[in-house]
Design goal:
By secondary structure, this protein is α/β, with parallel strands linked by helices. Helix content is about 35%, strand content about 20%. The chain has a 7-stranded mixed beta sheet with strand order 8-7-9-6-10-11-12. Strands 13-14-18-15-16-17 form a 6-stranded mixed beta sheet, sandwiched between helices. A 5-stranded parallel beta sheet has the order 3-2-1-4-5, sandwiched between helices. Strand 1 (about 1-5), helix 1 (about 15-20) and strand 2 form a beta-alpha-beta unit.
Length: about 425
Amino acid sequence: MHIYFSGIGGTAIGPLAMIAAQAGYKVSGSDKQDSQYIQYLRTQGINDIHIGQSYDQISESHSVQPIDWLVHTSALTIEDPNAPELQFCKQAGIKVSKRDELLNQIINDKQLKLIAIAGTHGKTTTTAMVIWLFKQLGIPVSYSVGAKISFGEMGQYVEGSEYFVYEADEFDHNFLAFEPYLSLITGVDYDHHEQFPTREAYNKAFQQFLSQSNERVVWNNDAGSLGLAPGDASVVLDDNDTAMNQIELLGLVNRQDAWLAVNALASLTNNPIEQLINLINKFPGLDRRFERISDNLYSDYAHTIEKIRGCLQTAHETSNNITVVYEPLTNRRQYYIKDGYKDLFKGVKKLYWVPSYLAREDPDQPVLSPKEFISGLSNRTIAEPAELNAELKQHITERLIIGDTVVCISGGGGGSLDEWLRAEFKG
């Protein structure tokens, strides 16, 4: 079967493409722009990738080997329901779906038990930690994770594995397509406001997700806010359990994610908590989660208020002198969270605010500028607008010279602050 992945450079579609290739499917695809991840996929043998998403390009792939199924990102139909690739597939009679349908087919065909990690924040890190623990225990596991990891590929199908570990995203209600054997909830705040108009609607989606799960691991605080009755969750974790103090990882959010992963694996494998803690203390981290680019220079994917707060808490465990370069992720999200920035950067020594990374935008919403965001800060004197240019590079260099820890917070992909940072500073 030939599967064509539209948006193959995305952090969800890309790993699924790798899994499909490993499971024996013919894989090709497209993306709007080239990126480091596209290059990464090419190194993994997925070479039939078009940059641009035109009618002619998908037609060319189809002429070489007929396409049986187009799997697309949620963004494709949101941005353009009449996208050229969709028009071609309709005319050619090619099956079209989002990624969940294909993943469910692979899980069912291979008789895998789904372990799904969901939550507003911490999904990627917790997913990577669960994968790390399986690997350290020597248990074969298949998985998909939304970041590069040093101990495996972003997506992998392992013949003979019993479990499939999946980062289950609530965006576009994706996670509601699954019926997990075990679900982990990393923490529920409120996000994707354009799809969930109220916090109640957002919470209801998580309630439905949990109702579809056979076993559950949740924090006590989330169990309360989601209205779970006693017995609704297999494991309810104390948010202030002192046993977490045995975990030695940097950052409170990382220690909390690790505790969730440890308890999930203890429930699945019956391995002692103490053994699992020793293994998680060796967790090497993952791409763009307080990732060290060079001495005292870090990149982090935080893009909601709670994620940014967690990133800054981690930074302050390393230094009292923190400089931040911040790139908001999507203009549409900013209309809902901009008031949350007011006191968010208290304790930061210097803040450089660059333009928002734009994706899946509402064309009727004016793009908010760095100056507009800065005007709403309670400590606006520490902040200044910036661009991804030589001047910003000089600012960062000067801050590093005087001994600051510089944290670049970037939610974007190709053409983002993160890519610019690596090009300018990573030797």
